[in-house]
């Protein structure tokens, strides 16, 4: 849609019109299931000055809308934490732990991605997926790997960004060597963070994390070892290569 300001003039003789106050009109546009632009314009009508009526269409704003994310989970603390991180990254984010009220509380056609937490019952998740799919066929669905806010945010980032073109293979986890492996076609900025759960008491699991790599790697094959104190269960890694993000479960064989 062209949001460029337009100016039209009409002339008449002996014509008197009052000032008109027309409302602001906001439009949202969708491209392949994702809200992309919001153009807001104001129509204003000026007073008649002698002869001639000036009408103007003034541009107010035309900006890209960020991807819209809906988080569905049990723990309010985890939801709030993930929501805060995602908003800081520029995503539009909402969350709820009212499983049975999702379709009443939200217009799901406005979202691009839904994350289901691990404490959402499987039958209810399947029902919501089916109902949401009828209203927003291009919705992207994610199953949260764990109730770790930063990990959830990285999953969302990974799902909504393209794979780095400098990546030839991986990243993947080698359980035998407890290492993350990848192959780069060209030098790239790489960041590896490991996450693990420290307490499983529902509904608010506790977790911690550690950054194990944050530097530019040259082209070639690379191995990043997981610290020995990171457990083999309920542990994960986020691998950021340039702007792309991959999340991996660090599970033993």
Global outline: globular
CATH class value of the largest domain: Alpha Beta
Query: What is the total number of structural domains?
Result: 3
Derived from helix and strand composition plus strand pairing, the structural class reads: alpha+beta
Q: Spatial order of the strands in the main sheet?
A: 1-4-3-2
Q: What oligomeric state do these chains adopt? A: single chain
Low-confidence stretches: 1-61
Describe the structure.
- The chain is α+β, with helices and mostly antiparallel strands.
- It is built from four helices and 15 strands.
- The strands form four sheets. A four-stranded antiparallel sheet has the order 1-4-3-2, with no helix packed on it. It has a four-stranded parallel sheet with strand order 6-5-7-8, covered by helices on one side. A four-stranded antiparallel sheet has the order 12-11-14-15, covered by helices on one side.
- α1 packs across α4.
Topology summary:
Blueprint: E1 6-10, E2 20-31, E3 34-45, E4 53-64, E5 68-72, H1 76-88, E6 92-96, H2 102-105, E7 113-116, H3 122-135, E8 140-143, H4 149-159, E9 167-174, E10 179-184, E11 188-199, E12 206-217, E13 220-225, E14 235-241, E15 244-249
Parallel strand pairs: 5-6, 5-7, 7-8
Antiparallel strand pairs: 1-4, 2-3, 3-4, 9-10, 10-13, 11-12, 11-14, 14-15
Helix pairs in contact: 1-4
């Amino acid at each position: 849609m062209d949001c460029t300001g337009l100016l039209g003039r009409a002339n008449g003789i002996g014509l008197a019109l009052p000032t008109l106050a027309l409302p602001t009109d906001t439009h949202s546009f969708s491209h392949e299931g994702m809200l992309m632009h919001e153009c807001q314009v104001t129509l204003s009508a000026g007073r008649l000055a002698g002869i001639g009526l000036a009408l103007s269409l003034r541009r107010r704003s035309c900006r890209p809308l960020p991807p819209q994310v809906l988080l569905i989970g049990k723990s309010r603390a985890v939801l709030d934490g993930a929501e805060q991180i995602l908003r800081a990254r520029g995503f539009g984010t909402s969350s709820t732990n009212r499983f049975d009220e999702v379709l009443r509380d939200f217009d799901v056609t406005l979202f691009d991605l839904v994350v289901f937490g691990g404490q959402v019952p499987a039958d209810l998740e399947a029902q919501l997926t089916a109902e949401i799919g009828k209203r927003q066929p291009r919705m992207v669905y994610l199953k949260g790997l764990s109730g770790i806010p930063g990990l959830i945010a990285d999953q969302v980032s990974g799902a909504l960004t393209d794979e780095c073109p400098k990546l030839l293979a991986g990243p993947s986890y080698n359980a035998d060597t407890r290492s993350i492996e990848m192959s780069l076609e060209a030098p790239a900025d790489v960041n590896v963070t490991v996450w693990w759960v420290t307490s499983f008491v529902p509904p608010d699991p506790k977790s911690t994390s550690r950054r194990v790599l944050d530097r530019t790697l040259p082209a070639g094959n690379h191995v990043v070892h997981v610290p020995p104190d990171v457990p083999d269960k309920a542990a994960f890694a986020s691998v950021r290569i340039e702007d792309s993000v991959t999340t991996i479960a660090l599970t033993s064989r």
